[in-house]
Amino acid sequence: MSPVMRTRRDGSTRPARHRAVQPLAVAWLLVVWLALWGDVTPMLLVGGVLVAVLVCLTFPLPPIDLGSSVRVLPLLGVVARFHLDVVRASVQVAGVVLRRRPVRNAVVAVDLETTSDFLMTLVASMLSLIPGSVVVEARRSTHTLYLHVLDVPDAAAAEEFRRTALALEQRLLRALPPRPTAPEAR
Predict the structure, then answer these.
(1) Does residue 135 belong to any structural domain of this protein?
(2) Cα 185 from chain centre
(3) Are 70 and 175 in contact (CB under 8 A)?
(4) Which residues cross the membrane (predicted)?
(5) Which domain holds residue 162?
(6) Position 9 in a domain
(7) What is the pTM of this model?
(8) Percent helix, strand and coil across the chain, each rounded to 5?
């Protein structure tokens, strides 16, 4: 992975510097610290901030650029639809288990449109959290997910699952559209 480059006023580039102590990282570490202690006191708050800063200084990470912006309303729609899909799939999996007949499973390949590793990971995670499917392989080079899917009796059912997965990707692309990249200087 290449380092993040910053463009100077004169057109030259230099590696971007990053702060070792990032406020968002400190906040998350503080939340984890307080959750581990199970209490909130002034002493735990001060101690948690100190531990979080120490962790950030000891293990510095570059800032993460997700490469996309956030559209709140479509994102809320993605979350609502995800919850609906989890409930629906749970009922379907329960039906498969209770009907006591042979089940045919399949590995379905889904070629994603996005080239973003972040969105590919998000699609893979959401599909794995929905009962009845799990990612068995993710090919970063071709942006293809291979999912083991429960109760796929024929090719039409496999194609229906593929369409469902691609629809999830499209909803995520509407909620988290990629930021336009600046043209590279020559």
Answers:
(1) yes
(2) 31
(3) yes
(4) 20-37, 43-61, 118-136
(5) 72-175
(6) no
(7) 0.67
(8) 50, 15, 35
Tokens standing for 84? 């609906």
List, run by run, the mean pLDDT of 10-residue segments along the chain (186 residues). Answer: 53 60 88 93 95 91 73 94 96 91 92 91 95 94 95 94 96 89 56
Tokens representing residue 125 in the block: 């995670």
- For the chain, the residue count is 186
Q: Which residue matches tokens 């089940």? A: 103
Q: How many domains does the chain have?
A: 2
* Domain presence at residue 149: yes
Domain check: are 126 and 150 in the same one? yes
Look at residue 20 and give its three-state secondary structure: coil
Do the strands 13-15 and 133-139 form a parallel or antiparallel pair, or are they unpaired? unpaired
By the 8 A CB rule, do 3 and 16 touch?
A: yes
CA–chain centroid gap for 136, Å, is 16
Q: How many alpha carbons fall within 13 Å on the CB side of residue 38?
A: 0
